[in-house]
């Protein structure tokens, strides 16, 4: 898939082209930012739109929760006691 998500920030009631582009994935996870007018990496002449391909699945995909990483999200009794512990000490 050729999907990339970014964010354009503008002042209220200002044109989109005057905004600042923020892209967290363009540089492999390091934040990239520039003025929208100066961003030439996604020039549509260089990257013409392609016909969308149908997904290889039919219907809904299933997401399986891993309690090791998400159980603390439902621990409402200790929400203010929990502290982030880094993996490396």
Count of distinct strands: 3
- Which sequence of strands runs across the widest sheet? 1-2-3
Q: What proportion strand?
A: 15-25%
- Share in helix: under 10%
Q: Which series of helices and strands comes N to C?
A: EEEH
Kindly provide the radius of gyration, computed on alpha-carbon positions and rounded to a whole number of angstroms: 20 Å
Q: Runs with pLDDT <50, length 5+?
A: none
User: With helices defined by DSSP (H or I, 4 residues minimum), what is the helix count?
Assistant: 1
Q: What is the rounded distance between the termini?
A: 37 Å
Secondary structure category: mainly beta
Mean pLDDT: 72
Largest sheet: 3 strands, antiparallel
General form: extended
Write a structural description.
It is a single chain. The chain has a domain of 48 residues. Strands 1-2-3 form a 3-stranded antiparallel beta sheet, with no helix packed on it. It is built from 1 helix and 3 strands. The radius of gyration is 20 Å and the shape is extended. With 89 residues, the protein is mainly β.
Task: Give a quick set of tags describing it.
3-stranded antiparallel beta sheet; 89 residues; mainly beta; 1 helix
List the helices and strands and how they pair.
Blueprint (H helix, E strand, L loop, with lengths): L6 E3 L10 E8 L2 E6 L31 H4 L19
Antiparallel strand pairs: 1-2, 2-3
Compact description:
With 89 residues, this protein is mostly beta strands. The chain is 4% helix and 19% strand.
């Amino acid at each position: 898939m050729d999907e990339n998500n970014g964010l354009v920030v503008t002042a209220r009631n200002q044109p989109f082209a005057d905004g600042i582009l923020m892209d967290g994935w363009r540089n492999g996870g390091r934040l990239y930012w520039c003025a929208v007018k100066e961003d030439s990496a996604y020039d549509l002449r260089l990257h013409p739109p392609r016909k969308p391909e149908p997904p290889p699945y039919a219907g809904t995909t299933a997401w399986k929760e891993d309690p090791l990483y998400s159980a603390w999200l439902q621990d409402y009794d200790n929400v203010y006691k929990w502290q982030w512990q880094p993996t490396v000490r």
